[in-house]
What does this fold into?
Amino acid sequence: MSTALLSTADELHARARHGRRAVVMTMGALHEGHATLIRAAREAAGPDGEVVVTVFVNPLQFGAGEDLDRYPRTLDADLKLAEQAGADAVFAPAVDEVYPGGEPQVRVSAGPMGERLEGASRPGHFDGMLTVVAKLLHLTRPDAALFGQKDAQQLALIRRMVRDLNFGVEIVAVPTVREEDGLALSSRNRYLSPGERRTALALSGALFAGRDRHAAQEALRARAREVPSTQARAEALSAIGESRAAADAHAVATAAPGGPAAVRAAARQVLDEAARFDPPLRLDYLALVDPADFTEIGDDFTGEAVLAVAARVGTTRLIDNLPLTFGAAS
It folds into this structure.
């Protein structure tokens, strides 16, 4: 298969469409995480459909002092990877194709959710992101658009925009792709020196520590629920030869701090240790939030949540997250 390289919307609109069109939006510098998105798009489009990959470094997403100028531009390599992953076309427009007449005066506002976490750290970022996503959805006219779960807040905001503004497109989430050591794949990983990369592993390490603490607590609570709570509890436990193990599970499950507080504590311990590394990790935020609005969850929360972290290692800023489920839904 030969992947077409297109630079204008007219070229894209002139292509014959026979099935579903699935779009993967990128800023280039493609890696295996993008390839996973493209393969998922190929499946979503079906054998008769079309997969379009957009490559556009959006200036509206970069604030003052951020890395717009040094953001990698690797179109030839991007085209090759997209072709190998199953894309039919790469749409790589110039800035004046996306923003004719200069920066748009009318933009999409991310609202309150866009002011939290990433939005607080990068003011205006999500307004710029949603504006270009809206533009690219109009320019590419897809049936489905696929986004990675690594950018969890971005994904939540895109879903909210599509719902609130009645875009006729299906938004499909694809799980985060990680390297063998756990580091989430990112175009910015290439900026890390070997020492910085070792420090950067604390991001995923913190998430895994929080996840493991949560899983252990849930397992202990489940074990305690299996233990009789009547006065005959001790005799019943002895009869089945599990008195010590069950009693330990019950004690830990009822006495040890659990839930969101324990998850945050376990993750923060890893991050605090990484702050003493050479080079150090400089934490931006650690948050355990409701994916509906990205507000912090309380200790009595039940349902799906997102454990998210952002930090700088050297001059490189990285983000990562993991989904968790609390309470009765676990």
Residues 252-256 have pLDDT under 50 and may be disordered. The radius of gyration is 23 Å. The beta strands are 4-6, 21-26, 50-55, 89-91, 144-148, 170-174, 281-289, 303-313, 316-326. The longest strand covers residues 303-313.
